[in-house]
Design a protein that fits this description.
elongated; Tetracycline Repressor, domain 2; mainly alpha
Length: 219
């Protein structure tokens, strides 16, 4: 007697939407959004094209923006590290998560998060900028600063921009140097940028002195 086929379970609206977003992100991870068709998304999700339109009546642009928001939420969480233990160890763990995301999305990282797509709009730009602002907020909280001055805010945001640029160059360079070396290099750049700003900003100088006196317990 042949085994019974597994019972079919209808997905909830939230589950189906998540399934479609996952399929879209998997495709956008290796190809630019403008090169991915809704038929391919439907096939990857194992559903019909009309079903994709039922959840995303705005077509590929709406699906792309929804996928971008999903990816943005994941990236925002990268720097949401518990504020326990030495700062550099926390920053190292946050970068491990960030670079793992970049590695997993590979060539689609540019299209998804760096405006490397013809379907970019003011809404998608705002989503990406939200990731940068969230990351800056996490870093400043890790530094224990409730009211950062303009020089410190600028330094943190400049470092986040450097992390993004380094990630893209790392992909172009076929993921060399090794990711752990890149991570440590970026942590060292953070310290260096704080040190330079410290020469012009008393608030940052106090942070740099405290960081220099703290143990470096990175793995």
């Amino acid at each position: 007697m042949s085994p019974a086929a597994p019972a079919y379970r209808r997905l909830s609206v939230e589950e189906r939407r998540a399934q479609l977003l996952t399929a879209a992100l998997d495709l956008f991870a290796v190809r630019a959004p403008e090169d991915v068709s809704l038929d391919e998304v439907a096939e990857a999700a194992g559903v019909s094209r009309p079903l994709v339109y039922r959840y995303f009546p705005g077509g590929k642009q709406q699906l792309y923006e929804a996928a971008l928001r999903s990816a943005a939420e994941e990236l925002k969480l990268c720097f949401d590290e518990p504020r326990e233990g030495p700062l550099l160890a926390r920053l190292t763990r946050a970068l491990d998560r960030y670079l793992a995301f970049v590695d997993g999305h590979d060539t689609g990282f540019s299209a998804l998060l760096q405006g490397g797509s013809v379907v970019e709009t003011s809404r998608t730009t705002a989503i990406v900028d939200g990731v940068r602002r969230a990351a800056a907020g996490h870093i400043l909280r890790h530094l224990g600063v409730a009211d950062p001055g303009p020089r410190l805010r600028m330094t943190v945001r400049m470092w986040i921009t450097a992390v993004e640029a380094a990630s893209l160059i790392w992909l172009d360079e076929e993921k060399q140097p090794p990711v752990t070396e890149l991570r440590d290099w970026l942590v060292e750049q953070f310290v260096a940028m704080l040190t330079v700003t410290a020469g012009r900003d008393p608030q940052t100088a106090g942070l740099a002195d405290a960081l220099a006196a703290a143990p470096d317990d990175r793995d």
